[in-house]
Amino acid sequence: MRNQLLQFLLKVATNKTGGRVLMRLITPTDRLLLRLTRGRFCISAMGAPTLLLETIGRKSGKKRATPLLYLRDHHSADTLYVIGSRGGQGGQAHWALNLSIHPLAVVHSPEGTGDYFAERITGDHRAKIWKAFVAFNPGFNIYQSRLKQEIPIFALKPELGSLEAASSENGSGYLSN
After folding, report:
1. CATH code at 95?
2. Backbone angles phi, psi at 64, to 5 degrees
3. Gap between the Cα atoms of 98 and 55, Å rounded
4. H-helix segments, the chain
C-alpha cells in the first residue's frame, strides 16, 4: 500500500500543476508533522525517506524548516544527500540558497536530530548521486528538462557546529521558506 501511494504521489508530482499542488499542501503539513514527531513521521515518508532541514535564512537570518526527500550515502552512512528540485517548478530552492550562504544546518530524521555541514556537490560525484535520485524517482529527469539551471544536490555531513549558535541573535522559531 505504501509503495502504491508513493508511486501515485511521484506520478502526480511530475505534472507541473500536480507538483505545485502537492508542494503547497504536503510541504506545510510535513513541516508540522516532522516538527511534532521529531523527524519520525510525515506524509511524504509513507514510502520516501524524508527529513526536516533547518537552515538560516540568507536574508532574514532566521531559522527556516523544509521537509525534503533524502538519500543516504552507501559508503558513509552518516552522509545524507538532498536535492533542490522544487518539484520541477523552476527557480532555486530557498533552502539551497540559504545553505550557499550559511552551510550549517540541523537535520531531523527518523534516526534523530543533529548538526550537519552542507556542501553542494558537482562533477562526477553529482552525476553519481543524480543517478541514484533518478533511480528512486524518474520524475527528476522531467523536472530537469523544464529548467535552464542544473538542479542542485547537497551532501550533508555531521558537524560539531550548531545552528542554534548561528541564529541566537536573530530570534528563534520555525518559518516557512
Report:
1. 2.30.110.10
2. -130, 135
3. 6
4. 2-14, 16-36, 94-101, 123-136, 139-146, 163-167
* Range of the structural domain that residue 144 is part of: 2-160
Domain membership flag for residue 171: no
Residue 158, strand partner residues? 116
Confirm whether 165 is domain-assigned: no
Q: Closest Cα to residue 104, out of 27, 167, 28?
A: 167
- The pTM for the full model equals 0.73
The crossing angle, in degrees rounded to 10, of helices 2-14 and 16-36 is: 130
**Predicted confidence (pLDDT) per residue in 91-139, tens digit:** 789 999 999 999 999 998 878 889 999 999 999 999 999 999 999 888 8
